[in-house]
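ok so i was messing around last nite and threw this chain in just to see what happens. nothing serious, just curious
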Amino acid sequence: MSASLSIIVVTFNARADVLACLASVHAHAPARPWDLVVVDNQSTDGTADAVGDRWPDVQLLRLPENIGFAAANNVGIRASAGTLVLLLNSDTLVEAGQLEALCAALEATPEAAAAGPRLVDGAGRQELSFGPMISPAGETRQKVRLRLLDSGPDAIRHRITAAMQQRQFVDWVSGACLLVRRAAAEQVGLLDERYFMYCEDVDFCAALRAAGHRILYAPEVVVTHLRGRSRATAPAATTRRYRDSQLAFYRKHHPRWARLLRWYLAARDITGRSS
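result:
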């Protein structure tokens, strides 16, 4: 019998997106026992009520405050029981067979604790949904690849796109759709809750790798990610949250660089709030 799957969806003022996401999951459910947990971070747009009304079979957890993305995912993980756990953004859509294919890819790779699919946007363009460990060099490399993928010469864009279609072990896969073995997640203490939003997926994958596991990028599995919704509705707050998490990440993993990063952000008047 196939391992059971728990799908965790964290929501915050994303009523239309999460209803579409849950509809796609129900329409294209995996071919194995599965359950779905929605953790609502005190939405004020009726998200939780809409989910409860439309999907009474879903385990809906209404939090009394917005505790952040990492902490809310942990609430969902602890409330579920699947052998495999899928962290799925509310702004994603899944097609037929893709959830099962991702589970099968991870199960066929015993050395891997986590796996992520190839993410594409609403127009089918590939998202750079994996990469090297966050570091000054790693971030520079990722930014260059993003710029080249967006507006580089055709030959270079095609080369990057081809690399993104190769199954490989990577440092991290995007938390927008991240499948993990429950035992491995519990081994590393779940997600680090110091990250309110952003960087928690890279940190989580780093913890899994430090525990001796590998991270699988499985591009044969494709999931649509309608990214950018949070930034579009609250760009200043989103940037601040990202910088907070970036500083927290550097303090944890690259303390020698953390002070320089803080000075750089202060000089640009982009300061994080975490100490």
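not much to say yet. Residues 36 and 241 are 27 Å apart (CA to CA).
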